[in-house]
Fold:
Amino acid sequence: MGEGGLRTAAVVLALALAGCAAEKPKPTPLVPLTAKIAGRQIWSARVDGIRMPLNLPVRDGAVTVAGADGTVMALDLQTGREQWRGQAGARLSAGVGTDGRWAAVVTVGSELVVLERGVRKWSARLDSSTITAPLVAGERVFVMGVDRIVHAFDAVDGRRLWSYSRTGEALTLAQPGVLVAYKDTLVVGQGASLVGIDPTKGSVRWETAITSPRGTNEVERLNDLIGPALRLGDLVCARAFQTAVGCVAANNATLKWSRLVGGLQALGGDADLLFGADASDRITAWRTPSGETAWTNETLLYRGLSGPAVAGRTVIFGDAEGQVHFLDRQTGEALLRQTTDGSAVIAPPVVVGTTVLVATRNGGIFAFRPE
Structure:
């Protein structure tokens, strides 16, 4: 078996071990809630059941979504009306990235497919399976496989421009990684480090670790960064799998702060507060400038919480039963609860202005407006 095969086996091993964890306690029952703020669902749409991690990118007043069957479509952010629809031609393992013109997804057969307003323009074969949504920026399409190797393609014609890999990671996590733009730098997760890459050449500009490996074997030392990362001005904040959360100042490649805490899902927040749930779904709010704990909340333990998002005075989490929880961002108090289709919320909600977008395992796309 070659090096690529060994790395793929390592990724699969990591996922299998994660699945062997002790059975979780039953979800904390929800208590009746008298809404303390107004809010309503403004529209919903549906795609084929979502079996892959899904970003909900919004560009030019439209959100681009994808279903597991290969359908890709753009929906008007205000009404949910379909603007265009396309087909990748196969079931998907990752989606979707877009700059408003091109939309990129990856199939279960490791094929990168790029569409322009629903019309399939080109495709390229990848060297490994991919579950991190592609990033489309600067007329380039960036893709990171589960082996954490990064590839750049020309968005116009599909030419492979460069590839970047870093040796030394015995195991990588079969979960979406960090792939985000910061000004003229591509920021990617490699182990527990954020790496700044020149997007035109694929060369490394800087590297900063959020935490250090811990444990006596490679499984215990697994601490890949979990995507999507949170970009807050010059700060890029992320969670390292089951070990830490932290923020890096990308303008000077320095670690602002890091806190040891477990967890499996991405972070959310803004310049004042950062939010996340640990492996037991205990929610913590940290002060973004310092990492100091602001509050914790244990009312939603073991409910399978998604990553969070912030909207106005609220922080929002979805759960494994399709409930959407709006909490007071300053205290953690429950303010509002909205329902979807009863299936798990499979990605952090996305907030655009006053609209909150949520995607569920059964393929529901829901738009809410808290008031």
User: Anything to note?
Assistant: The chain has one helix and 32 strands.
